[in-house]
Design brief:
This protein has about 550 residues and is mainly alpha-helical. The chain is elongated.
Length: about 550
């Protein structure tokens, strides 16, 4: 204020004609008056003196408010003034007191980020260490615990934090199932819960054998395993399973008709058919294997998916594998997926193995991870029709109609290429293999054509592209059907009565079996009331058909008191 009065006197005595606005501002000595002056006269000696006075008044105002926001605004507005240093000190003090009062690691980290060289830095760091220790003692956030260990590898509290991370990781693994349990064993090679994790994994393995009806194998596994004696619930579980099996083995026609096994070839016979010379026998066996809700069928189906020579047998194996894993109890399915993923991770390096990993992840509902593995399994120069089939289905489930159509077009191009390249000739013997490959091309082209048609109905984006996709799929279907007709004509000439691509006897038998099981289940309550609950519960838990499981649930709910 003194500088301003001196300047006013000098200007008055020298006759420089101080503007009246300036004199009015000086007389009023308020922020409003000085701001009005600066708007009208922003340049000159008078303006500079006014700015000095404005800074003094705004600092006084900030001091009266004494808030973080007030000091922060002052420093931003007047960073180079003599008052700015004092404002920064006061601002730091307010922020430090607020962080100290909050007492959280987040608040203290923010203070140190705002004032890395402040006067309260050392005290803030000491408080931060104490707050982190307190939070680490109670947190169940394993990511935060891992982050802390990486940030402070030499911290004397490391052993305590590692123990906390061990405990929390085990607790999470207990809740989330087999995949996390295997992850615990990987992450904690010397973890304090390793034996308990191995016991739980053994229990899941044994439960898989039990629900698959392999009771003797389950009993032998428990007897031979060093941790078997710790499965305290197993004897009672085995006794219940034997009682159930005895009931299900009742020879009453209605009981037999209510069970899917009554309509199926046994697993061993189907295993032999997977190696049959005719690819149709192989793909029909792969389809029928999917009706056995048993852990025993998983590896045969994975082997077909990996090394099958015909696209249809691999595609049927994929459908069966997804169906079996969906029908198994979720904890069992998760274990069976996890144990195979663990083995594959150690040796994965080819498209075939990446595909197996993708399918297992897909079956366990981890589509994000599955998508990555499907992509790694896909080789654009040699597109895998099985991957394309699955991509179409997944994208349709997600209502991504155009993306599904893109995958369908790629599948149609594969079918078109197969139809063009396949040699159909009477020379060289019976064209069985050619007919079966062309059958796969026809089924693929038809599937692609139907998928594109659905996309055109559901999606108005890029209609010209979709029209082009439809033409490609139509061309693929026409050519593959024509080439298939030629191949099957030669086949029937050589072998009268040979089965053709349209032979769906196995699928028809399986479809008919669903209707027969449904009728048998509905009749159980009135005709065999004693056995009905056991048979219905078995159908609800282990039938491969979602339709039958739903019917069993309905009937059980109806009979509840």
């Amino acid at each position: 204020m003194r500088e301003l009065k001196v300047l006013s006197l000098v200007l008055l005595l020298t006759g420089c004609g101080v503007p009246r606005a300036y004199q009015r501002a000086a007389d009023a000595d308020t922020l409003e008056a000085y701001r009005a002056f600066l708007r009208e006269y922003p340049e000159g000696d008078e303006a500079e003196a006014v700015r000095v006075r404005v800074a003094e008044l705004e600092f006084e105002e900030a001091s009266q408010l004494h808030t973080v926001l007030a000091y922060k605004r002052f420093v931003e507005a007047h960073p180079d003034t003599t008052q700015a240093r004092r404002a920064r000190t006061l601002l730091e003090g307010l922020r430090f007191n607020a962080a100290k009062e909050a007492g959280t690691a987040v608040a203290l980290r923010q203070f140190l980020a705002d004032h890395p060289d402040g006067a309260q830095r050392d005290e803030a760091r000491r408080l931060l260490q104490a707050a982190e220790l307190k939070e680490l003692a109670t947190t169940d956030d394993t990511a935060r615990l891992r982050e802390y260990l990486q940030e402070a590898p030499e911290d004397p509290r490391r052993v305590e934090v590692e123990g906390r991370l061990d405990d929390e990781s085990f607790a999470r693994a207990e809740k989330e199932g087999a995949s996390r349990l295997f992850g615990y064993l990987r992450d904690f090679p010397a973890g304090r819960h390793r034996e308990e994790v191995k016991r739980r994994l053994l229990a899941l393995e044994v439960e898989g054998l039990v629900v698959s009806g392999l009771l003797e194998e389950a009993e032998a596994r428990v007897a031979a395993h060093p941790l078997g004696a710790q499965l305290k619930d197993f004897p009672a579980r085995l006794a219940r399973a034997r009682t159930e099996r005895e009931a299900l083995r009742d020879q009453a026609p209605l009981v037999r008709s209510a069970q899917v096994g009554h309509y199926l070839r046994d697993i061993e016979d189907l295993g032999h058919s997977l190696a049959a010379p005719d690819p149709m026998d192989r793909w029909q066996a792969a389809e029928e294997l999917g009706q056995h809700v048993s852990v025993r069928v998983l590896d045969p189906l994975l082997n077909v998916l990996r090394s099958g020579r015909n696209a249809l047998e691999r595609q049927r194996a994929l459908e069966s594998l997804l169906g079996v894993l969906h029908a198994l109890p979720r904890p069992v399915a998760d274990y069976e997926v996890a144990v195979r993923l663990e083995a594959l991770r150690e040796r994965a390096g080819s498209p075939e193995l990446y595909l197996l990993m993708a399918v297992l992840l897909d079956a366990s509902g981890r589509l994000g991870e599955a998508a990555t593995e499907y992509q790694r399994a896909f080789v654009p120069e040699e597109p895998d029709p099985v991957v394309l089939w699955r991509w179409v289905a997944i994208r349709e489930e997600r209502r991504q109609a155009f993306s599904a159509a893109v995958a369908a077009r790629q599948l149609a191009l594969w079918a078109l290429g197969t139809a063009r390249e396949e040699t159909v000739s009477a020379e060289g013997g019976i064209p069985l293999a050619a007919a079966r490959r062309l059958c796969a091309a026809v089924r693929s082209a038809r599937f692609a054509s139907e998928a594109v048609a659905r996309a055109r109905e559901a999606n108005t984006e890029f209609p010209e592209d979709l029209n082009g996709f439809a033409v490609t799929a139509s061309d693929a279907l026409k050519l593959s059907e024509a080439r298939l007709a030629d191949a099957e004509l030669l086949l029937r000439e050589k072998t009268p009565g040979a089965r053709t691509c349209g032979d769906d006897a196995v699928r028809e038998r399986l479809t008919s079996a669903v209707s027969e099981r449904r009728e048998a289940l509905r009749a159980l309550g009135s005709k065999l009331p004693r056995l009905a609950p056991v048979v219905l519960e078995a159908a609800r838990e282990r039938d491969p058909s979602e339709e039958i499981r739903a019917e069993a649930r309905r009937l059980l709910a109806r009979d509840e008191p």
